[in-house]
Amino acid sequence: MDLIDAFSDGRVQFAFAKVKDPNTTLPKLVLISWCGEGVPERTKGYFTNYLAAVSKALHVSESLTVQWGGYNGG
Question: In terms of residue numbers, what domain contains 44?
Answer without folding.
Answer: 3-57
